[in-house]
Structure formats: C-alpha cells, structure tokens
Design brief:
By secondary structure, the chain is an alpha+beta fold. The protein has two domains: about 5-110, Probable inorganic polyphosphate/atp-NAD kinase, domain 1 (Rossmann fold); about 120-255, Probable inorganic polyphosphate/atp-NAD kinase, domain 2 (Tumour Suppressor Smad4), CATH 2.60.200.30. It contains six helices and 16 strands. It has helices spanning about 20-30, 45-50, 65-75, 100-110, 180-185, 270-280; strands at about 5-10, 35-40, 55-60, 80-85, 115-125, 130-135, 140-145, 150-155, 160-165, 170-175, 200, 210-215, 220-225, 230-235, 240-245, 250-265. Strands 6-5-16-13-8-9 form a six-stranded antiparallel beta sheet, with helices on one face. Strands 12-11-10-7-14-15 form a six-stranded antiparallel beta sheet, with no helix packed on it. Strands 2-1-3-4 form a four-stranded parallel beta sheet, with helices on both faces. Helix 3 (about 65-75) links the parallel strand 3 (about 55-60) and strand 4.
C-alpha cells in the first residue's frame, strides 16, 4: 500500500488555454477529500521551487512541455509528477482531462506505481570557468544558430577523444529524450528504465553519422571548434541556455536528480503507448468463417 497524499500541488500550463479551469476543479475536488492543495496557473521554476518543498505530489496540466518543466522543478525535491494531457502527443502524461476524477480516485486508493527516469546534468565552461548549468529530462542540444552554417564539435567520451562532428549540431539525450528530438533525426528508441546517454548527430556532413549509446555512467564532453566562426547555441529540454563561443566546453553526465512519474497503467505500457503514436493501429483480421471456406 502506498503512502497517503497529504499535500498536492497543481501546476497548469500558463500559455495553454483551458488548463486553469481544470486546475481549479481538481483543487476543489482534492480539498473536498481533505488534502491540502496549492495551485499555480502562471509560474516559473524560481517561484514554484519553494512550493514543491514538503509536497507529496505535483499534478502538471498541459502537454509534454509542461511535464518537462515540472519534472526539472520536482526532481531535486524527490517529488513525483502526475500529468494531465491537454497537449498533442502526451508521451509523458498519464491521464486525460475527461477522466481525471476517476484517475484521482484510483490514485488515492494507492493503486499506482512510480516510474523513475534518468536525468542529465549539463555544465558549460568558458575559459575554465563555469558559465551555466542545468538538468535535462529530455536532451541537451548543441547546434548552429540562425545562420545556416555547419558547426564543428570536438567530442570526448570519458576523457578520451572520440570524433569531431561536422553538421547542424549534436543531441545528447536521456532514454526519455530518445523518443523526442533524437527520434526525429533517426536515433534509436531506448526504454525509459535505462540509464544510458544517447548521442545523435544532426545532419552530419562527411563525419560520423551514426547514433551512439554510451555505457551507463559515461561522461561526454563537447568542445566548440576553437577555429569556429559560426554561432553555436545550447538548449536544455528546448529552452535556450547559452550562446557558445569557440573553445567553450559542454559536459554532460547522469544527474543526481531523478524524474519520478506517477503511473496508473500497467508497467509494460511504454511500447504500446509509443507505437500507438508512431503508426496507425491496424486491427487484427477477423477469422474467416469455416462455412465460407472453399473446399
């Protein structure tokens, strides 16, 4: 039996229409069931972080973007996230806006499990000094800026030189991120329970063009070519973090924080959920009646 929830937070997507009324309905329902509740319909990480402390669960309302933002805020406090999908794909969300009440009744009965997902820790160094850092649930992307010129990225794995990529950029993804940008550019799909780092080049030109799955515990360092004159930018889970200069280093390893998601479905949900989104589900052909078979 799972521990009871005493304090639940609700984070609604600030820019997605229709999330605020759902958040308000959920808050009223939880309070009627004796659960302390807080809610934010417009928020950023700095304002949400203090609220997450001493919270048992956060309900994120929106699409996968809302889940990414919520996970980065909640993971350092070991707070699980339950997603209500008002977006398009909803890879990370768990319930729909139409059945949230039934889902919450199941949740309060303790009929759920927690899925742990690896996160990435990214550090940016410029002339030996840390310029920026952050955690990613999906991916860290080093890519060209607005001008359509390829970039050169020297890549080191566990301290040893691996290759120099020449192309539009490089995706360093978690298993969760393998079904995001990495999948869109031809990378493999990794099950969410793995703890490996995936490296996928973006439009490589006359350089290494195959994705690589690194061993668990590996560290990857990417250095912008010291002779580069092309604008290079760094994004974490799709958010711009820094503009990089020639010689800047981006170091990525497994984060100490772990994303936790509340699941109500069976533990083998991942492949069916993924394939339902990637291809039309063709129903099995009904058996031909024996009487109609020509003898």
């Amino acid at each position: 039996m799972q521990q009871p929830f005493r304090r639940i937070g609700i984070l609604a997507h600030p820019l997605r229409q229709g999330t605020a009324p759902i958040a308000q309905d959920i808050a009223r329902w939880l309070e009627a069931h004796g659960i302390e509740t807080w809610m934010r319909t417009a928020w950023d990480a700095s304002r949400a972080q203090p609220l997450v402390e001493n919270t048992d669960l956060v309900i994120a309302i929106g699409g996968d973007g809302a889940m990414l933002r919520a996970a980065r805020v909640c993971a350092p406090e070991h707070v699980p996230v339950l997603g209500v999908n008002t977006g398009h794909l909803g890879f990370l969300t768990e319930i729909s806006p139409e059945d949230w009440q039934t889902a919450l009744e199941t949740l309060l009965r303790g009929e759920y499990w927690l899925e742990n997902r690896m996160m990435l820790r990214c550090e940016v160094r410029q002339r030996g000094m840390e310029l920026a850092h952050g955690d990613a649930l999906n991916d860290v992307v080093i890519s060209r800026g607005a001008i359509a010129r390829s970039v050169r990225l020297e890549t080191y794995i566990d301290g040893g030189w691996a290759t120099t990529y020449h192309g539009d950029g490089l995706i360093v993804a978690s298993p969760t991120g393998s079904t995001a940008y990495g999948l869109a550019v031809g990378g493999p799909i990794l099950p969410p329970e793995l703890k490996n780092i995936l490296v996928v080049p973006i439009a490589p030109h006359l350089s290494m063009d195959r994705p690589m799955v690194l061993a668990q515990g590996s560290t990857i360092e990417v250095v912008v070519d010291p002779q580069s004159l092309t604008e290079v930018v760094l994004t974490i889970d799709g958010e711009l973090i820094a503009s990089l200069e020639s010689g800047d280093q981006v170091i990525v390893r497994a984060s100490e924080s772990v994303g936790q998601f509340v699941r109500l479905r069976e533990r083998n949900y991942f492949y069916r959920s993924l394939l339902d989104r990637l291809e039309p589900r063709v129903p099995a052909r009904p058996p031909t009646p024996a009487a109609s078979i020509d003898k």
